[in-house]
Amino acid sequence: MTLLMILFCTFGLLSEIAVAQNKTLINSTPIQPYLDQAIQKMTEFSLENGMKFIILENHEAPVVSFVTYVDVGGVDEPDGKTGLAHFLEHLAFKGTTLIGTKNYQLEKPLLERLDELDKKIQVFEEKGKPDEVSELKTKFDATEVLATRIVEQNELGRIVEQAGGVDLNATTSTEATRYFYSFPANKLELWMSLESERFLDPVWREFHKEKNVILEERRLRVDNSPIGQMLEKFIGTAYTLHPYRRPVIGYNQDIRNLTRKDIKDFFVTHYIPEKITIAIVGDVSPNNVKELAKVYFGRYQSTLQPKGELEINMEPKQEQRKKVILKLKSQPWYLEGYHRPSINHPDDPVYNIIGRLLSDGRTSRLYKSLVEEQKLALTAKGFSGYPGNKYPNLMLFYVLTAPGQSVDKVASALSKEINLLKTELVSKIELERVKTQARAELLRALDSNMGMAQKLLEYEVKTGSWRNLFKQIDALEAVTANDVLRVSQTTFTPDNCTVGKLLPQDGY
């Protein structure tokens, strides 16, 4: 299927073109008219409380995808309480006073009792009184058994599944929390009811069990993962002030110390109408969506205050090269990161192109040189926007060395490829190839209701308007070889570089 056909499928316009298309036609046919038709199918509105909705009609199939985008992530957590946003995402699936419980009136005092016992356990642990701790844990376990008997496990998920819903899930990043799933078109009102209730009437049940789940998740991702440990150390070195320096999942001790009150306070501060944007893409009527949104989400009370944001400490300009070295039971890895501006900077498309030139697939410079020709690496990739892109971030390169090779050889080879971008203009053929790849990736992201919903929300919240999503193709087309040279020269400097070396322990 050609790029143009993919685009037409996305917006329900396949019937308007001939089935046979070729690459020449893709490159010569203006895409903007079709994007304009998509824009005509968009509707947006805000409720009186400040909650915003973006709707894209697509009547090709009787399905609808929903994404609730909360403008809060790891960067919004206070120091000492990392992991709150991710923890809250887990608990948002636990239900309400009506969903997820057999009898909330019986459950509520048990939940409060668990909180009291947990607090006392922490106090006696700090005082070094094991006998008291043991006695309290016995009481805690007995209370938790009683509370668990009242819980209806995964009731929200069962309701969604029985109504034909699919892909119920959520993600937390440095700067956003997203909740999403898809329903048959005739279940629009059910989605309105379920989604509004779980944030209007949440119950943070099974908090202590979920804490253990998250701690195990951290062990798998970080503590027992050499590259996970390396990435945590690396980003904590590259950043000194900005909260990008902290892991989204949270530090181990912070997670252990979090309480249900911490979750509630964070929720009350950040899960406010003004910070929630919802995308609905599929077989819906905008007027129907608007009327139902007023009924269900109009119940949220506006805070009439700033968006509950902490003051974000901006990262000062890096003045000297930084280095992280870890020795663990692992194959050698090499990391190299450079500070770059946010998604809203005019040079963002240039960084996109640079990342693709160096590491987009088997035709990229890093793969051809380090993997195929020199056989120094098993993997050699890079990308912009680490660990997020709402604020100034990193262009990160990472290389897994091949057996018998060293990170120093890899570092030298990577440096040579980066320096070429600083000293030689990219050829017209190579530049056009990566632009074609960039267009294809963008259009593939729009090739589903869910993909479209996710992208619309990202651009709406981060750039101020979902319309900027449809300007990306023109922005990429406008990038020149001189732009690549200029940005490479200003970005890839020794003082702006952070290096990470993951070396094998002796005997590994």
Radius of gyration: 25 Å
Strands of the largest sheet, in order across it? 1-2-6-3-5-4
Strand composition percent? 15-25%
What helical percentage do the residues reach?
A: 40-55%
- Reported by name, the CATH topology of the largest domain is Cytochrome Bc1 Complex, Chain A, domain 1
> How can the largest sheet be summarized?
6 strands, mixed
Corresponding CATH superfamily of the largest domain:
Metalloenzyme, LuxS/M16 peptidase-like
GO molecular function: metal ion binding; metalloendopeptidase activity
Keywords: Hydrolase, Protease, Signal
Signal peptide: 1-20
Protein name: ZINC PROTEASE
Describe it for me?
The chain is an alpha+beta fold. It has four domains: 3-40, no CATH class; 64-99 and 154-299, 2-Layer Sandwich (Cytochrome Bc1 Complex, Chain A, domain 1); 102-150; 322-504, 2-Layer Sandwich (Cytochrome Bc1 Complex, Chain A, domain 1), CATH 3.30.830.10. It is built from 20 helices and eleven strands. The protein has helices at 3-10, 23-28, 32-40, 84-91, 104-127, 130-150, 155-162, 188-200, 207-223, 226-238, 252-257, 260-270, 286-296, 348-359, 365-373, 407-423, 428-445, 449-463, 472-477, 481-491; strands at residues 42-46, 52-57, 63-70, 166-172, 177-184, 276-282, 322-328, 333-340, 377-386, 393-401, 497-504. The strands form two sheets. Strands 1-2-6-3-5-4 form a six-stranded mixed β-sheet, with helices on both faces. Strands 7-11-8-10-9 form a five-stranded mixed β-sheet, with helices on both faces. Strand 1 and strand 2 (52-57) form a beta hairpin. Helix 1 runs parallel beside helix 17 (428-445), helix 14 (348-359) crosses helix 17 (428-445) and helix 14 (348-359) packs across helix 20. The longest helix is centred in the N-terminal third of the chain and has 24 residues, at 104-127. It starts with a helix and ends with a strand.
